[in-house]
Design goal:
Blueprint: H1 5-28, H2 34-49, H3 57-72, H4 79-88, H5 94-108, H6 114-129, H7 146-178, E1 181-182, H8 187-199, H9 208-218, E2 219-220, H10 229-237
Parallel strand pairs: 1-2
Length: about 240
């Protein structure tokens, strides 16, 4: 239901001073991200400018609850504490959702490997999912919950990274095959030829095992693109 204009006027008069003091505290604090500060301040400014015909009791109650939570934590306020509060109240407001997604992008953009990026995203997902949340509460019911939106983005990003990893691994495998010396020999024949080269002192490596490992990685046979070191070693010693 819509809030009567007279009642809304009284409520805004009571909340206005608290909102001004809170916004001032946020602005002065060095431990709070400036962008997050702007999102909260803009939310309260929008609420204070709403007309009675556009304001519901639910919106009023949510604004009061958020203000109470933030004011109560003013002494220990930090970016992390504010984020925890906004998750607790399911603050699924568009600007804050974008803020969280940009934060996740920033955490991973400088990491050198896809595995590291996925590890960071999974860790952040764990932290988000472990945050307590009020049941059946939220800034707007027109959008999915804050956690749901963040989880969805992380899952899609991980899926993309995994797919990219798979394509890269396939590409590396193809590249490895192309870079090998291809033969029409069997493993047994290749092992016998290597044994002859060692006996005739054409290959003069002191240790056999490391040499065989290199050969197993470098050559292919008629049947196999990947030669087993164990198989090559067995046939080398029993030519």
């Amino acid at each position: 239901q819509k809030v009567p204009a007279s009642y809304l006027f009284v409520c805004k008069d009571e909340l206005g001073k608290q909102i001004s003091e809170l916004c001032l505290s946020l602005e002065k604090s060095d431990s709070i991200d400036k962008h997050l500060n702007e999102i909260i301040s803009e939310f309260f400014r929008r609420f204070m400018s709403l007309q009675a015909r556009n304001t519901t009791y639910e919106q009023l109650a949510y604004c009061k609850n958020l203000l109470t939570q933030l004011v109560s934590e003013r002494e220990t306020m930090s970016t992390l504490r504010i984020r925890e509060t906004l998750y607790y109240l399911n603050f699924n407001e568009e600007n804050f959702v974008f803020y969280e997604l940009e934060r996740l992008k920033h955490l991973t953009e400088d990491l050198p490997t896809r595995k590291e990026k996925m590890a960071v995203l999974y860790y952040e997902q764990k932290l988000v999912n472990q945050l307590p949340v009020l049941v059946n509460k939220g800034y707007t019911k027109d959008m999915p919950s804050l956690k749901e939106q963040v989880n969805c983005w992380i899952n899609e990003e991980v899926k993309y990274l995994e797919k990219d990893c798979l394509q890269m691994n396939i590409g590396n495998a193809v590249s490895n095959i192309e870079n090998k010396i291809n033969t029409s020999l069997s493993v047994a024949k290749l092992a016998a030829i290597i044994r002859l080269l060692v006996v005739d002192k054409i290959i003069i490596n002191r240790q056999v095992a490391p040499m065989l490992r290199v050969i197993a990685k470098t050559f292919t046979t008629l049947q196999k693109d990947e030669i087993s070191f164990g198989s090559l070693e067995t046939k080398y010693h029993a030519p």
